[in-house]
């Protein structure tokens, strides 16, 4: 579903292969913060996935994204688990089922309460206020589905099914394996913030991108796709 309007947090248009995204060395890049804006507490919703921006939902974009050309009003993000100091941050994400192997950049929060998103459509980002692999979750990772010129890094995320595995490698080289338990598309106005960004007692993982149909009037996708995974 590659749209001519660059979209954030990817889902997976068409193209089955993705040789352009098989990189090995982790890299830390800049992130932009007008994509996912946090909604007050647990009512955060990812509003825009278009034009390289995800608006709405600093803590958890739903599997459905209702685009909105302008960022939502700033709000306080839902409480996220404090990363354990002893757990190193993640630096790489690998998903064999869709031939994805990408370094991770850091995604924090903007002063206005919005979640940063990658500036580069081929970057995948880790939400730093969330969990870290090996600790308590959730570990939240987001990426674009397409760009103004075609597919982006999370193009094939929609192909994942329960049982597929995801490996998140930490800065110390330790691999942390997760198994996909659910892939859900959620309307932007029904984003399950608590489920996606809420603290968990165990090590869990969330992958977020855009999904649903592309709304040309709003210049954004109607949904967000969220992949839920548990530690193996």
TrEMBL record:
Residues 70-91 have a biased composition (Pro residues). Residues 20-31 have a biased composition (Basic residues). CDD domains: Sortase_F. It holds the Pfam family Sortase. Keywords: Hydrolase. One of its GO terms (molecular function) is hydrolase activity. Residues 1-31, 56-91 are annotated as: Disordered. Residues 57-69 have a biased composition (Low complexity). This is Sortase family protein. It comes from Microbacterium aurantiacum.
